[in-house]
Amino acid sequence: MAPRRRLLRGNSVLVSVYDRKVGYLVFRFDVKRLFSDDDDDESTSRSRPWRRRQPREVLPLPPCHVACFRRPLSFPMDLAASPSGDKIVAATTDGHIMVYDAKRSQYTYDHDLRCWKAWTILLTISSRHRDDMSMLVTTQLLDFSEPDLHFEAFRLTSGGRLHPLPVPPRMLFGDDDDEVDVTSYFVASGRVWLSVRRLCDGVKGTYSLNMAAPTKLGWCREGSWVLPLEGRAVYAPDLGLLFGFKRRQ
Fold it and tell me: Does pTM surpass 0.85?
C-alpha cells in the first residue's frame, strides 16, 4: 500500500492510497494536525517562537476511507477532486472516467474517453464556482501517429462533459512516428504546463496551454528545457514556488 497523490480541500487534503488487493482508497486528512503547538505553553511560544508549528513525524491513517475506486491490476488511475472536495474524479488507462459524489455516496460511470491512455494524467483547473472544475486528460506517453486522441477536457458541470482539445502544433513534438514522454506537469494561472522529452533523440522542451481559451494557437513553447522534477508538480502562487519530486538521472 502506497500513497499516490493528494487532493486539496480547504484545511484538509484527500490522499489516495493504492492497495493492490482493493484498488485506490481515498482518505481525508486534517492539515492542521500536521502542525501542532499543543505541547508548548504560552510562555514558551512567546520566548521561543521557532518551537511553534513543528511538523508531526507521523500522522495516523484515518479509520475509514472517503471513497474506493476498484480496478484491475493492469489499469492504473489518476485522481482529482472538485474545489469543495465533494466530488472525486478518476481517469483510468482503459479509457473511462468515474465520478464519486461524496454527498450522495454515489458513483457515476457514464463517461468514456476517445481512446485508452497509457498512464493517464489529470490536471485540474479550478473555477470561481465551488463545484465547477475543468481537467486536462492526457497520457504520460504521447504517440503522435494518432495525435487527435491524446488531449481531452472534462468538466464536472451538468453531470460531466468530455470534449476534445486542440492538438499541439506539429512543430512542437516532431514527426508522426515520434513518441514523446511527459516528464513533468503542473497548473499555474489557468495554464497547463508539460515538460516533454522525445524518445528517439532526447530532444526536450516545455510547453503550456491556456485552458480558458484552448485553441491550437493557445499552445505556447516556454523553452527548450524541462523541469528538474518528475511527474506531478504543485505550484504555490502565494510563494511563487513549484513543489515536486526531484527527477532521477
Answer: no
